Structure formats: C-alpha cells, structure tokens
Amino acid sequence: MNGWQKQDLLKRRFTLPNELFSLELNSAEISIYAYLLYCEDRKTHQCWPSYKRIAKEVGLSPKTVWKYIIELVDKGLISTENTTVITKKGVKRNGSLRYTIQPIQEAVELYHRRQLRKLELDAARWKAAKVG
Questions:
Q1: CB atoms inside a 10 Å sphere around CB 54
Q2: Were both Cys, which of 62, 78, 90, 101 would link to 55 (CB 3.0–4.6 Å)?
Q3: Which candidate, 109, 106, 85, places its Cα nearest to that of 96?
Q4: pLDDT tens for each residue of the chain, 132 residues long
Q5: Exposure pattern of 108-127 as b/e (b: 16+ CB <10 Å)?
Q6: Do residues 64 and 41 make contact, with C-beta atoms less than 8 angstroms apart?
Q7: How many other β-carbons are positioned within 10 Å of the β-carbon of residue 93?
Q8: Where are the domains of the chain?
C-alpha cells in the first residue's frame, strides 16, 4: 500500500467518542449518530443525509430514524436545521435537514444536569412522602 492509499484510508475513518457509551443511548441512536459522524464534513461538523438515506444505511425505517433524530437533538448530540433547494424548474422546495454534530462534552454535561435534577426531584418526593 502506497502513501496515498494509506492517507485515503485514514480520511475515511472516524472514531466514536468514549463518552457516548455513558449517555444511556439505545442501539438505534448509536447507529444513527455513528452514521452522521461518518457523513460529517470534518471541518464544519455538518452533513445532509436524508431520513431515507440514513434509514437505508443503518437498517431502520425512515419514521424510526425521524424518531431517534429527535432524541439525539434532545440529548444534545446533534442539532438540525431545515434547508431549501431550488429545482431545475426554479421551484423552491424543502431540502434535507442539515445536521451539526455538537461537541460531546456538551451532551455529557446536559446528561449530568438532567440526572442531578432527577435525583433532586426524587429526593423531594421522598421527603414529602416521609413527612406526609
């Protein structure tokens, strides 16, 4: 294998952050997130695959992909933005979503804040039940 082939191989590789496995994601969420990482532009952290394309690549239905994209946004792993395209006839139409991969540390911090809030609420309920 020559130097150019090795460089091409390295460009096609990506890693999953270790923290991903501490966020209580299910296998569908991990698969979709991994596919978005695979597609992302490494400089802008953005990509534009359709639900249909993601579904085909990860073996899920487009409706299921849609459901888990919402979960990934809610968990702070990605953000989405609507795009538009102009057809050859000059008609403006909705395009694919633009996905931006968020820094993993932000998702971890959000997860920890939510876990702490849940513990606080559970402690308050326990205290109220004990007093009542």
A1: 25
A2: 62
A3: 85
A4: 565 555 565 566 788 999 999 999 999 999 999 999 999 998 999 999 999 999 999 999 999 999 999 999 999 999 999 999 898 999 998 888 999 999 999 999 999 999 999 999 999 999 888 876
A5: bebbeeeeeeeeeeeeeeee
A6: no
A7: 9
A8: 17-131
